[in-house]
Amino acid sequence: MSTDDRATLRRQMRAKLRAFAPEVRMRAAAGVARQLDQTGWLKPGLKVAGFWSLPYELPMLIAQVGIEKAGAQYFLPILHADQTLRFARFKAGDAVRVNRFGIPEPLATESACTAADLDVILMPLTAFDRQGNRLGSGGGWYDRTLAGSTAPRRVGVAYAAQEVPALVPAAWDVPLHHVLTEQTCLACQPFSAP
Ligand SMILES: Nc1nc2c(c(=O)[nH]1)N(C=O)[C@@H](CNc1ccc(C(=O)N[C@@H](CCC(=O)O)C(=O)O)cc1)CN2
Ligand SMILES: Nc1ncnc2c1ncn2[C@@H]1O[C@H](COP(=O)(O)OP(=O)(O)OP(=O)(O)O)[C@@H](O)[C@H]1O
């Protein structure tokens, strides 16, 4: 898949997502929270990174509440100077600053850690396929952050409508173990039982 194809798919998918009605967004947000709960992953003390959803991304608000209710710890990504992401604890109401992409980040960074310190990383994405290939925002942030690491469990969060038949991965793409949608928690093929 060429860089042009990737840019075109990003543009088309974002246009489709932007057209979703508010009820569709909120139903999906509740659906993803339910699917996450049903995985059985959430345990007290589990470290789970989410993200502060952009307007066209699936709203993470309800899942975040579910994570906290289960006693797990919720983290948000922070852009680090080395072009990778760090992650800091975030609870509703905590102070934030807006980063250069217009995305809020926790202001208090005492708890900041690297991806290897997390148990589960819930990632935004633009499009995914059943093999676990992920097309992101185009900055390569998650790929750089996760390059060469085994932990944590890598989970895409998306509307079911973001699935595409096949993405051709780039050399640096780090595949997803699972994709959580409002309908299911998909185990991506290379990581699912035979
Ligand atoms: N909600 C959310 N938080 C996130 C991400 C994300 O995709 N969504 N990120 C995911 O990495 C990181 C921030 N990185 C980002 C990278 C690029 C763009 C962006 O807006 N890019 C260009 C498109 C570039 C292209 O198509 O080639 C744009 O939309 O103009 C946004 C965030 C960490 N936090
Ligand atoms: N491990 C890496 N080392 C160096 N550069 C990388 C690495 N991973 C990705 N990149 C760079 O990041 C750029 C964007 O990658 P890509 O299009 O796959 O981003 P993305 O996965 O859509 O974005 P994001 O993870 O931010 O949502 C690529 O052009 C590549 O040069």
From TrEMBL:
<dbReference type="InterPro" id="IPR037171">
    <property type="entry name" value="NagB/RpiA_transferase-like"/>
</dbReference>
<dbReference type="GO" id="GO:0005524">
    <property type="term" value="F:ATP binding"/>
</dbReference>
<comment type="similarity">
    <text>Belongs to the 5-formyltetrahydrofolate cyclo-ligase family.</text>
</comment>
<keyword id="KW-0460">Magnesium</keyword>
<dbReference type="Pfam" id="PF01812">
    <property type="entry name" value="5-FTHF_cyc-lig"/>
</dbReference>
<dbReference type="GO" id="GO:0046872">
    <property type="term" value="F:metal ion binding"/>
</dbReference>
<keyword id="KW-0067">ATP-binding</keyword>
<dbReference type="GO" id="GO:0035999">
    <property type="term" value="P:tetrahydrofolate interconversion"/>
</dbReference>
<keyword id="KW-0436">Ligase</keyword>
<feature type="binding site">
    <location>
        <begin position="6"/>
        <end position="10"/>
    </location>
    <ligand>
        <name>ATP</name>
    </ligand>
</feature>
<feature type="binding site">
    <location>
        <begin position="134"/>
        <end position="142"/>
    </location>
    <ligand>
        <name>ATP</name>
    </ligand>
</feature>
<dbReference type="InterPro" id="IPR024185">
    <property type="entry name" value="FTHF_cligase-like_sf"/>
</dbReference>
<protein>
    <recommendedName>
        <fullName>5-formyltetrahydrofolate cyclo-ligase</fullName>
        <ecNumber>6.3.3.2</ecNumber>
    </recommendedName>
</protein>
<keyword id="KW-0479">Metal-binding</keyword>
<feature type="binding site">
    <location>
        <position position="57"/>
    </location>
    <ligand>
        <name>substrate</name>
    </ligand>
</feature>
<dbReference type="InterPro" id="IPR002698">
    <property type="entry name" value="FTHF_cligase"/>
</dbReference>
<keyword id="KW-0547">Nucleotide-binding</keyword>
<dbReference type="GO" id="GO:0030272">
    <property type="term" value="F:5-formyltetrahydrofolate cyclo-ligase activity"/>
</dbReference>
<dbReference type="GO" id="GO:0009396">
    <property type="term" value="P:folic acid-containing compound biosynthetic process"/>
</dbReference>
